[in-house]
Amino acid sequence: MEAKRNKIRHLSWLYVIIAAMVMSLIVGCSNSDSVTKNVVAQSEKTNNNKKSSAIKGDTRTVKDAYGEVEVPTQASRIVVLDIGALDNLLEMGITPVGAPSILKIGDPYPAYLKGTKGIENIGSVNEPNLERIHALKPDLILGNKDTHDAIHVQLKQIAPTVFVETLGVTWKENLQLHAEAVNKQNQGTQLLRTYQDRIDKLKSGLAGKKAKQISLIRPREDKIQVYLKETFAGTVMNDAGIARPASQQGDGFSKDITEEQITDLDGDLILWFNREPDAFDKLSNRPLWSTLQAVQQHAVQPVDWEYWMSGLGIQAVNKIIDDLNRFLIH
Amino acid sequence: MNSKWGHKLTGLAILLSLTLLMFFFSILFGIAQISWESISKAIYSFDGSREQLIIRTVRFPRAMIAVFVGSSMAVAGCMMQALTRNALAGPELFGINYGAALTSVIASFILGTTSLQLFAGSSIIGAAVAGSLVFLLSSTGRQPLTSMKLVLAGSTLNLLFASLTQGILILHEQSLDTLRFWLAGSLTGRSMDLFFQIMPILLIGLICSLLMGRQLNIMNLEKEVAQGLGQQLRGTRIVCILIIVLLTGGAVALAGPIGFIGLAVPHIARLLIGNNYVWIVPYTAVLGALLLLIADIGARFVLPHQEVPVGIVTAFFGAPFLMVLAQRKGGMK
Asked: Where found in the cell (chain B) (predicted)?
């Protein structure tokens, strides 16, 4: 009996050790996050006692992806749920009180955006933290239906929400709706007009030159993504009348290809961005890469994924036009 | 006796030639069009053209990896089924698949990269750690290393590793996509260098397992009978675990944890050849290569103009197989 018990104890020690290892691993991975979560939860408690002190001023009606919304005439505490809205608001001189990181909670905001200091991090674009948003006591929330449809009801209970339909290809409509939501319609229109001027200038600059086909790709660890016309950057290039390789003229967002289809990447100029650090090196080290015409002519340029892929606002658009000018005109 | 040997050898020869045929098909068929002539040109008069580069740097490594990974996974499953005397055993049951996956995920979490080289190195370590943990856990108690203990320790650890892997992936969203693809199991984008680094491990494992047939036969007898025949069960089991770690670790390192090959193939081999492990092991090895080659060719054509991970194809055919098996045999043989 005694011996058996010892044996059981012996066994269970092994399990205890494994469990301890496991626990320390989990805690080690997540401690920073849970600490801040506690702080938020506490500050929220104190806020609840004070009761919301939002001033009931005049309101305006804005039409968003769900219907008509009553928003404050001049919202002062705005929370944005995506980088496109953050980008647009900053351009119009408004600093939101809360905004998400692109990928992971706490990541810095895109480097191309200026004046993000002091903006409270509310999680990632895909997983915004409702408690944090609530704790910020916003009087307006800007999001998009595509990503945040599931939490629209909860968000509405926190503050008036203005949702655009989706991100990316609709960036012009989004800018207009954002401008309307913050009562800066004229500025929104002006920004779009400036954009059109810049596009026209780029077009006339290109008119005298031999047309170049631009390939836009994103190498990844397991595949290569070819960016098609219905992407954020694709719309800008389309507006400027820039030709794309035959393989990249389809509608849709992107196409996954493997190394065998490497000819789909070719063009007069290859622009690439990646988020996985080694993905491009892996591709460019392969023997097949050097069979591409653009590679042989050294017409391969890295571009910044933060605004070519994830920016989705007017500042990102302007940065893309800067790049295109640099690559194609000068 | 002699004619029986003859039949069995003929069967093996037929399977081998089928495998060879599939090997050529694997080089011939794909999204990019390749002609027969350019295959022979790529071998005998290589000129660096795009078509020949595809054959040499994409299709050929891929076919080689399919052969070795398929064989190794299948033989590892075969050894496990013999070791645990459980017809439903496979590399999944031993925690080795997910042990390898877990270390890869941890390594990429800490180092912040997701290169295949890193996955390969860390998954071999993970397989070894998982194998030793299974061994350690099932060595405790009065009757060490019984089939039941191995199964329990293995499946418990597998669940533990799987949940830890998921947990880390949730915290580490950036590499989620890459890892998800890797975890499904795939043969694309592997270079010949990586293959040559891992191949010796697999080769050693395969050769050792081919020499183990007689011991596996005895191990499959009742324990008392085996001991009566003078078999050192403990020693055999340790060697088995070592071989399983080599085969699974190496295969996962190359292709990720491809499922169901290890479970299904030994059964097909038994259907063809009976219950003698001296024959089951070589049949399993060849059949594993053959089936993974076929599954990998299938993976190129399931969706138009796009490939799916081969692990999904094997799971698609393997899952119904598992259900039939579980119903017929009730798990134990």
From this structure: Cell membrane
